[in-house]
Amino acid sequence: MKKLLTIFMLCFGLLLTGCATTAMDTVENDLQAKKFDVPMEGNSGIYIYRNSFIGKALKKNLYIDDKLLGQSAPDVYFYKQVKAGSHKISTESEFSNNNLSLSTESGKNYFIRQYIKVGVFVGGASLEQVPEEQGKIDILKLKRAKDL
């Protein structure tokens, strides 16, 4: 029984800490996005990133206004300019998408952190808006993923 429990815990641990990959953007685009320039007139910039240790083996779809942005992976971020206004940011989770409502202003950047949480069958995901200064610090440590 102890061996069975040990094997189960090992498999569960690998599920939570394995590694996932996603298509990466160019180094030039990564460096440009990390300048945190003011978005074009009438637009807002949205950075969505994942920097959590838990769930490294999991990929989770990310959406802006129900349009697929890409699949997240550990230590990556996405950047997208959108028209200023109300937006729905979504992440695939265990049973259904989790959504975050975001009201944006022209010329501003917004930072959304995706985090993985323990689920019933597989890890779920959720989103939280973070302050701009914290978002910038976090983004500088990550690599830019390619939008789909």
Describe this structure in words.
This protein is an alpha+beta fold. The protein is built from three helices and nine strands; from the N terminus they run ααββββββββαβ. It has helices spanning 2-17, 27-33, 132-139, and strands at 43-50, 60-64, 67-72, 76-83, 86-91, 98-103, 109-117, 124-130, 143-144. The strands form two sheets. Strands 8-7-1-4-9 form a five-stranded mixed β-sheet, with helices on one face. Strands 3-2-5-6 form a four-stranded antiparallel β-sheet, with no helix packed on it.
Mind sketching the topology for me?
Blueprint (H helix, E strand, L loop, with lengths): L1 H16 L9 H7 L9 E8 L9 E5 L2 E6 L3 E8 L2 E6 L6 E6 L5 E9 L6 E7 L1 H8 L3 E2 L4
Parallel strand pairs: 1-7, 4-9
Antiparallel strand pairs: 1-4, 2-3, 2-5, 5-6, 7-8
Task: Summarize the entry for a quick read.
The chain has 148 residues and is an alpha+beta fold. It has helices spanning 2-17, 27-33, 132-139, and strands at residues 43-50, 60-64, 67-72, 76-83, 86-91, 98-103, 109-117, 124-130, 143-144.
Considering the chains and any ligands shown, give keywords for the structure:
148 residues; alpha+beta; 39% strand
Q: Major sheet, described briefly? A: 5 strands, mixed
- Radius of gyration (CA) equals 16 Å
Cα distance spanning the termini: 46 Å
Q: Uncertain spans, ≥5 residues at pLDDT below 50?
A: 4-20
Number of strands: 9
Order of helices and strands: HHEEEEEEEEHE
Residue-averaged pLDDT: 86
Beta-strand proportion: 35-45%
